[in-house]
Amino acid sequence: VGYVDGIPIMHYDSDTERAQPRADWMGANLDQQYWDSVTSIEQNNQRVDRLNLETQ
User: Fold this and answer.
1) Cβ neighbourhood burial of 10 (10 Å; 0-12, 13-18, 19+)
2) What is the pLDDT of residues 21-41, one digit of tens each?
3) What are the MHC class I-like antigen recognition-like domain coordinates in residue numbering (predicted)?
């Protein structure tokens, strides 16, 4: 979850493996390319986190 001033603005759903806007202005002002990029970053973070949990 991403926050600005304590308000959630985006969320990565580990079940659907997609990043999604939580603030209306995020959804209205950012194109699909942005969300695809954030999704890719978060998918990689999820893989790394899973590997780190398995090796500890």
Assistant:
1) buried
2) 999 999 999 999 999 999 999
3) 1-55
